[in-house]
Amino acid sequence: MKRNLLLTPGPTQVPPSICEVLGKPIIHHRTPQFQDYLKEAVEGLKYVFQTKNDVYVIASSGTGAMEASVCSFLSPGDKAITVEGGKFGERWTELCEAYGIETTVVDVEWGHSVDPVVIKKLLDENKDIKAVYVTLTETSTGVTADIEALGKVIKETDAILVVDAVSGLGVTDLQVDNWSVDAVASGSHKGLMLPPGVAFVSVSDKAAALMESSKCSSYYFDLKKYKKAAEKTDTPFTPAIGIVIALTESLRLIKEDGIENLFKHYERLAKATRAAAKALGLSLFADDSCISNALTAINVPDSVDGGKLVKLMRDTYGITMAGGQAQLKGKIVRIAHMGCLDEYDMLTGIACLEKALNESGYDFTLGSGVASAQAVFNS
Ligand SMILES: Cc1ncc(COP(=O)(O)O)c(C=O)c1O
Asked: How many domains does the chain have?
């Protein structure tokens, strides 16, 4: 039987105790039992978001939380800044355009992160900008943005700071309250180690004020409905019942480890993977100054087709990594560290990458990547 190890930046490996909960018979959502689960889930999410703000639970993939964070705060004709620099930054622009928002795009070179000074200048020159949309971990490039620095700049203005933390929540530090982050969109199938199907949005008082004045042009993604329902520990529509219940187990596991320890754990996995890549003679796609601990994007040698490499690992050895997207198709391989993964999973992945590179004709010393990763784990 072939293994199925997910080293992908979503969905991620689901721990056995969560799988057990997912296997339980369904209960009805308009019941005191489900209300208890929902209450526990929302409280636990506040711990992971590091916030006292409301957190709303939506049945959708992560993009639903992003969509809700556009249409619920802004009205057609409003102005916003979107920070690009990868596929998911581009999604903010596409969503804003879909809702008739006038968008100023900050085009960041892929592999780099946005300079807060650029955002400050734009906000100083355009006082009517209502929101700035950024990505915590740009999964297509392996970059993590400096949200703390952006928060410092944006809190001095009337604009709200909205962060896509679909990738990165629970993996990379994101201090929503301390860093003045007004809204965070996230999802179940990355750092929270659940199947896809549930999304979350946290909303600050500043964002809530904007929400009240927004002529939201969506029905399902109107956060006002989620706020009203949450006041009665409810959801406006049928929630993804099984995943919300399993979320309570995921949050229990996260609290047991402690969020700060988890950040250190993922950093260790990332450092070992980066060391392995370098030992194999491969460079990293993201700039050192903003490199992510949630995933590592490795440049594939010119002589190797990155798409074929990923397929070889998945179809022959049962280890799934992600290839490149858009202009990076075939050029990078992305190894995730988030989810239920440990150092042995990383070593397995690195060994498999070595095997596949070797079979693809790339010349290097077999075992050098694994040895360098081991050295990091032993340090
Ligand atoms: C940073 C980021 N934002 C948004 C999304 C979109 O999430 P979903 O595919 O769950 O809609 C992803 C998914 O990979 C992501 O990594």
From this structure: 2
Measured CA to CA, the distance from residue 208 to residue 217 in angstroms comes to: 16
Of 215, 101, 216, nearest to 159 by C-alpha is: 101
Query: In terms of domains, do 168 and 158 share one?
Result: yes
Do 97 and 246 share a structural domain?
yes
Ligand 1: residue of 93, 167, 194 to mutate (most ligand atoms within 8 A of CB) is 167
Range of the domain at 241: 16-256
pLDDT at 270: 98
- 123, 146: one domain: yes
**Start-to-end Cα distance in the chain:** 35
**How many Cα atoms within 13 Å fall on the side-chain side of residue 124?**
7
Question: pLDDT value at position 3?
Answer: 78
Instruction: Region of 324 please: left (phi>0), alpha (psi -120 to 50) or beta.
Output: beta
The position carrying tokens 């308009």 is 30
Residues 209 and 227 both lie in one domain: yes
Looking at every residue in the chain, the average pLDDT score rounds to 97
- The CATH number of residue 196's host domain is 3.40.640.10
pLDDT band per the 50, 70, 90 thresholds, residue 2: confident
Question: How far apart are the CA of 63 and the centre of ligand 1, in A?
Answer: 6
Q: Among 256, 274, 296, where does a domain finish?
A: 256
Residue pLDDT, tens place only, 210-253: 999 999 889 999 999 999 999 999 999 999 999 999 999 999 99
- Global pTM? 0.98
Which atom belonging to ligand 1 lies closest to the Cα atom of 64?
11
Shared-domain flag, residues 362 and 213: no
Which of 84, 94, 166 has most ligand 1 atoms within 8 Å of CB, for mutation? Answer: 166
Ligand 1 and 170: CB distance under 6 A: no
Q: 62 CB under 6 A from ligand 1?
A: yes
Strands across the sheet containing 79-83: 54-59, 198-203, 183-187, 160-164, 129-135, 79-83, 102-106
Q: Residue 288: give its domain's CATH number.
A: 3.90.1150.10
Judge contact between 40 and 249, C-beta under 8 A. no
Tell me: do 212 and 320 sit in the same domain.
no
Same domain, 269 and 243: no
